[in-house]
Amino acid sequence: MNRGALSLLSNYGGDSSDEEVPNGRVSVKRCASEEDLSNKRLPVPDIICRNSVNKDVPIDDPSLHNGHIRSFPHERGNWVTYVYIPYEPNDLCIDELIAHIINSLSQFSFHTMNNFHISLTRTVILKHHWIELFIKSVREKLSSFRKFVVIFDSLKVYCNEERTRTFLAIRIRSGYDTLIRLVENLDNCLAEFQLPPFYKDPSFHMSIASCVGDFEKEVAEMLPNLNATIQKICINQSQNNWYNYVTHIECKCGNKLFTFNMN
């Protein structure tokens, strides 16, 4: 090492003595302040912020399902649930009959229901951790019921509790006593979870079409003539479409489907 380098080291040692610094060492890196760190962080892209806020929160768009408005706001952990008797038409005659009915009421913009069923409970909200216990209770309450026949009757119009939707339905003429006993047993299941029972003095029916708005009064005035026409049509159709042989009951819970076979 030449004399110039030794001179520089000597001057450095004299200006900054190890005795002035604990442990005899000094870090040459400056501690970054919080302000410096915040300035150096890259901003989160807007698209990620939007996705994180809206993640798993469905957007209710009535235009995607014939104007149907959600009765319950979506909330994580809540499962929309109802119990019902499903109905599968035996042939295409029932579809033709419904098409005729809808055409006769064209001013109300009715749409055929996606699936046909007879409700046995209200639509209620179950917490996720209740589902297993609720299904177990329903299965126990329905275990003693045997298969039975439901016979359909004439048309009737209904409106939902919010008065936002009108339903055209076929009333039940036979099988009423069994339906009442089913509802009583299911009401007991609902009571275990402090959920509301089915309607008092229920009018059992199968909805076949619905439209947006409250048109119960207007449609009811047209039903006598429409029922007379339907009776004439049914004479020429198979009677197999005018009853339902009930072999099982279903429970829709969110996106889960549970089936309860009857004896």
Automatic annotation (TrEMBL):
<keyword id="KW-0456">Lyase</keyword>
<dbReference type="Pfam" id="PF09749">
    <property type="entry name" value="HVSL"/>
</dbReference>
<feature type="active site" description="Proton donor/acceptor">
    <location>
        <position position="205"/>
    </location>
</feature>
<dbReference type="GO" id="GO:1990838">
    <property type="term" value="F:poly(U)-specific exoribonuclease activity, producing 3' uridine cyclic phosphate ends"/>
</dbReference>
<keyword id="KW-0540">Nuclease</keyword>
<comment type="similarity">
    <text>Belongs to the 2H phosphoesterase superfamily. USB1 family.</text>
</comment>
<dbReference type="InterPro" id="IPR027521">
    <property type="entry name" value="Usb1"/>
</dbReference>
<feature type="active site" description="Proton donor/acceptor">
    <location>
        <position position="117"/>
    </location>
</feature>
<protein>
    <recommendedName>
        <fullName>U6 snRNA phosphodiesterase</fullName>
        <ecNumber>3.1.4.-</ecNumber>
    </recommendedName>
</protein>
<dbReference type="InterPro" id="IPR009097">
    <property type="entry name" value="Cyclic_Pdiesterase"/>
</dbReference>
<dbReference type="GO" id="GO:0016829">
    <property type="term" value="F:lyase activity"/>
</dbReference>
<comment type="function">
    <text>Phosphodiesterase responsible for the U6 snRNA 3' end processing. Acts as an exoribonuclease (RNase) responsible for trimming the poly(U) tract of the last nucleotides in the pre-U6 snRNA molecule, leading to the formation of mature U6 snRNA.</text>
</comment>
<feature type="region of interest" description="Disordered">
    <location>
        <begin position="1"/>
        <end position="25"/>
    </location>
</feature>
<keyword id="KW-0378">Hydrolase</keyword>
<dbReference type="GO" id="GO:0034477">
    <property type="term" value="P:U6 snRNA 3'-end processing"/>
</dbReference>
<keyword id="KW-0539">Nucleus</keyword>
<dbReference type="GO" id="GO:0005634">
    <property type="term" value="C:nucleus"/>
</dbReference>
